[in-house]
Amino acid sequence: MPITYDAVKALSADLYDWSLRAVPADTKDGLRHAIGTESQDGARKVLRMMLTSAQKAEDEDRFVCSDAGVPVYHVTIGTAARLDGDIKAAISDGFDELVGRISPPLLKHVTNPLTNERGYKGKDMPLVTWDVAGGADWVEILCQPKALGSGRWAALETFSFPSLAEIEAYVMKVVMQAGSQHCPPVIIGVGIGGSFDVAARIASKATMRRVGSVNPEPTLAAMEERLLRAVNATGFGPMGTGGDTTALAVHVDYASGHGYTPVAVCFNCWINRRTRARLHNDGTVERFE
What we know:
- By secondary structure, this protein is an alpha/beta fold.
- It has 2 domains: 3-21 and 63-147 and 273-287, CATH 3.30.1330; 148-268.
- It contains 8 helices and 13 strands.
- Strands 6-2-7-12-13 form a 5-stranded mixed sheet, covered by helices on one side. It has a 4-stranded mixed sheet with strand order 8-11-9-10.
- The mean pLDDT is 96.
């Protein structure tokens, strides 16, 4: 049986809804680990408050944060998936349906950048990126809403044949510019190489990696360790109150490119909103997070 318009519409709406009401399990584990390693009493108190807030949102079916951001989806289509209907339209229509039914209601965060007018509709909204998985019989949808705190401080710069030290220095420059305005402890994604758009995509995708996972590329694993130590040595701490926990993770990936090397840096706030599920040809829905 095919993967239908109605199935994609329902799942895309549910993923956004779910993402607003829970903190991913790996992120909560990261917060718990941070409490054990944090040296500042005030910072430990803030980290405990975050965990309490996350649990309360789940128990009472409430939003973890009032800033629901805007809907951002990453869709991977298997080459063996059988599709019936316009799945791009289904994602947009799913968001429209959710706006009408969700409780509490969403605020009007969708903004026209030319007029600053706000609403629920807009050009290219929801924001969707697409990928292909060879041989897979499913469509995977990952929802990662982006709000002001995490979205505002992303940055990209293009270098010519940079050294690893130069790349790390740029990442730290972006970190220092953000300060604590992105609601730390954050997850930091770094994309190196490719082209301008590819580097940004890599950085965004890097934030989706599970907190606590180890990069399989030894050079990048070592870079992540160095950067995480350096970020946490800034002392911004949870929500800018001071402490050792400004980031829960730094995740780095790369693509080959020309001699010019774009480096992109982006952030997810401490909530690290992320939900993901697959629709299979047999009609089953497999939820991962």
